[in-house]
């Protein structure tokens, strides 16, 4: 296994990581827009988006851990 995990990472891991980062960024932007306009609904709506991004991030960590364990067994 190479020292650089990203070079050998599975496509599913990369998709999960970028999706998680995108959702977290979108949630933060929604939250900032809601705070800037004093829109309570937008502020509340941003929280599940951020939460989904965090869940996807955790799933990506699990996928990465499984891949590392699989490569160490070889």
Structure explained in plain terms:
By secondary structure, the protein is mainly α. The chain has one domain. Helix content is 88%, strand content 0%. It contains three helices and no strands. Helix 2 (11-37) packs antiparallel against helix 3. It is elongated, with a radius of gyration of 16 Å. The chain starts with a helix and ends with a helix. The model has no long low-confidence stretch (mean pLDDT 92).
Helix-strand layout with pairing:
Elements lengths: L4 H4 L2 H27 L2 H34 L1
Helix pairs in contact: 2-3
Oligomer: single chain
- Overall SS class: mainly alpha
Number of spatially distinct domains: 1
Question: What is the share of helical residues?
Answer: over 70%
Shape: elongated
Q: Kindly report the average pLDDT value.
A: 92
CA-to-CA gap between the ends? Answer: 9 Å
| Low-confidence residue ranges | none
Beta-strand portion reads: under 5%
Work out the radius of gyration.
16 Å
Number of strands: 0
Give the count of helical stretches: 3
Order of helices and strands: HHH
